[in-house]
Amino acid sequence: xxxxxxxSTRRGLDVVELxxxxxxxxxxxxxxxxxxVFVDPTPAQLATARRLEAETGITFLLVEAPGERVPLxxxxxDLAFSEYGASLWADPHRWVPEAARLLRPDGRLVFLTNSTIxxxxxxxxxxxxxxxxxxxxxxxxVEWPDEVGVEYHLSHPQWIDLLHGSGFQVERLIDVYAxxxxxxxxxxGYVSPGWARQLPVEEMSRRSGPRATEPESAQPPGRPRPWxxxxxxxxxxxxxxxxxxxxRRSSSxxxxxxxxxxxxx
Length: 265
Ligand SMILES: C[S@@+](CC[C@H](N)C(=O)[O-])C[C@H]1O[C@@H](n2cnc3c(N)ncnc32)[C@H](O)[C@@H]1O
Fold this sequence. Notes:
This protein has about 260 residues and is of the alpha/beta class. About 25% of the residues lie in helices and about 20% in strands.
């Protein structure tokens, strides 16, 4: 936790989590003094994060939006990360450029998702096995027969091309294995501990600036707006705000709505 994939979680770091879920991970960074913004498109997840905020007293900013379209200003963060949020559920060709837009020039992107080998060995139904179940050319947009939702998986060359095209330098790709003491999990039982001790079930990637080039899909230049709104005392919590899906609303209007300075309680 102290160093997130090599990125120091020092006090005062501006962090955005893309697809925060219950926000437990960002909350730990906030507890260490990071100024965190939690982004997730699912109101129920944000409601849980809000409840945990009340219970723990750790305050943060919640923004309801998908990783593909985050209504926050350009160049606002030192670290963007995702743990099975946008990194699995958002279209990488949209969320990776969006992460690049949100980061400062020397910012870092760190994310965790399923490994390529785990994906290739996953049957349509059931546990990850020891045989290849699908061609690598089938990677990208995936809908499992018995599950709701769309996952996104890229091969390593595809990730590298996309990240370079979005202006990132690739620092590390880390295989995550189960430890010797690992036991079968009731909820995440899609892979056995024995499998995950021998093959990487997850991959963690660390990508960084300074950007070699401007992202190919760079947005218009940033707006000259103070950000974060309250650097002195850290973020305070805002009501959850929806990222409107109406394309007629300009992105600057959405951003203005979501970055308005917070009135004192
Ligand atoms: C398995 S949870 C993981 C989040 C977090 N690490 C946790 O453990 O709570 C996946 C999250 O991704 C979010 N999600 C779904 N589609 C998304 C998208 N397009 N962009 C960002 N997040 C998304 C879901 O709402 C959910 O909260």
